[in-house]
Amino acid sequence: MPLSIVLEEEISAFANWLDTACRSFDLAVFKFFASLHTNWLTPIVNVFTQLGDTTFVVILMIVGLVLCFSKKTRKYGMTLFFAIFIGTLITNVVLKPLIFRPRPYVSLADNADFMQWYTEAGSNVESDRSFPSGHTTAAFEIATALFLVVKNKKIKWIFPVYAVLIGCSRLYLMVHYCTDVLAGMICGIIAGVLAYFITRAIINWLQTSDKKAVQRINNIDLFFKNKNTEDAAS
Question: Is the pLDDT of residue 147 over 90?
Answer without folding.
Answer: yes
